[in-house]
Amino acid sequence: MTKKVLIIGWDCAPPDWVFDKWIDGLPTLKSLLKKGVYGNLRSTIPPITVPAWQSMLTSKDPGQLGVYGFRNRKDYSYDGQYFSNGADILEPAVWDILGKAGKKSILVGVPQTYPPRPINGCMVTCFLTPSIKSQYTYPNELRDEIEKNIGEYIPDVKHFRTEDRDFILKQIYEATKIRFQTFRHLLKNKDWDFSMLVEMGTDRIHHSFWKFLDPKHPKYEKGNKYESVIPEYYKYLDNELAETLKLIDLNETSVMVVSDHGAKAMLGGICINEWLIKEGLLTLKEYPKTFTPIEKLEIDWAKTKVWGSGGYYARIFMNVQGREPNGMIPLSEYKKFRAELKEKIENIKDEQGKKLATVAYIPEDIYKEVKRVPPDLIVIFDDLRWRSVGSVGIKSAYTYENDTGPDDANHAQEGMYMLCDPKNNFSGKRDNNHHLMDIAPTVLDLLGVEVPKDMQGKSIVEALHATPL
């Protein structure tokens, strides 16, 4: 049992790049790695910030949380989508369990902690914070302390979907700098047993600069001026990690560096609603003259059986009799229709006629429970090499431009983790057998707090002891 646990989260950090390509330029991480255990960390389906971080920290899957992405259906109406935030998380997170055991936590930037709620410790909320005019801390007076000692807090990069890459880069560094300054101020001035920071700059820099880095990206040009932007930023993060570790006693503190999912080159987008129109499953009252989000179009619900939403994955919704207001699919045919639709989507080909490695997941098949209003299908196109595009107006199921602004990367299913624990010399072992739901039980195990039986994950430390090195 250690006395403290510190977690640094790098949203979207890819293990294949961090561990296999950049590690020699990351001396702080490398020194921890040599004594610790590290590897790939399987993410949720879908592998996306909301709900992946909360799945990690509650050890519950998205179905149990009732959160299937940033946007969720609040009911079975056609326009009842809303953006999820921390108010949706009703399952106890690791800091709630620690609080009941009398242990204090410091949280900075952990996704889905806005709006702030009481914890045994202090909290600075995440990128979902609308602005710093909102209450973004717990306790409330912590906000004044931060503004007095650090300056103006920056919850997230502003306008990161733009072609002005220099503007984005400046914003990322400014936000990262102030987040770590805030975190270190709290580490120095507050009592804590568990502390955690999540940096979103990694995600923002991947989506903005991946085509400049990755030779597998169709728009990559060797020797471009931004080619080293991402690895240089990771060197900056490694230095921030080093500065943070100066404040803690490594003889009594377990250190983890984790990500919620990885990143990879995005080859293009499948216009899911264009495809549904061609299949005769979606009917518009009028086809748009320009590329238009599906939410802004008038759908003829009396002639529509299916519609979908865009994003790094697709959410497919079926128009079911007795469920949706103008349901078309008889409830008795629901499962058969869904199975047939799943097969059709999984057989979508690219423009050259090559079959994509697509999987359409049925929520109740992949989650322990299915709460609130899930999509009827969750679709991962071509192992996340293609994204889903919800807009309509180009008369094609394929696009190579993103409908929500410039974006070079998709997410990858595997995130990363590194654990360095003073009580266990894991000798730099690489172990790729863990899921992000294993992180919360690991924290509790390290701090000597009983792991609730309803957590899905298992302690990484316990697993390693059960399997000798």
Describe the structure.
Helices cover 29% and strands 18% of the residues. The chain has helices at residues 15-20, 27-35, 49-58, 62-65, 94-100, 142-149, 165-189, 201-213, 229-245, 272-278, 334-346, 363-366, 439-446, 460-466; strands at residues 4-10, 37-42, 71-73, 81-83, 105-108, 121-124, 137-138, 194-199, 253-258, 262-265, 268-271, 306-309, 314-318, 359-361, 377-380, 386-389, 398-399, 409-412, 414-420, 429-430, 434-435. The strands form five sheets. Strands 1, 2, 5, 6, 7, 8, 9, 19, 20 and 21 form a ten-stranded mixed β-sheet that branches. The chain has a four-stranded antiparallel β-sheet with strand order 12-13-15-14. A three-stranded mixed β-sheet has the order 16-11-17. With 469 residues, the chain is of the alpha/beta class. The chain is built from 14 helices and 21 strands.
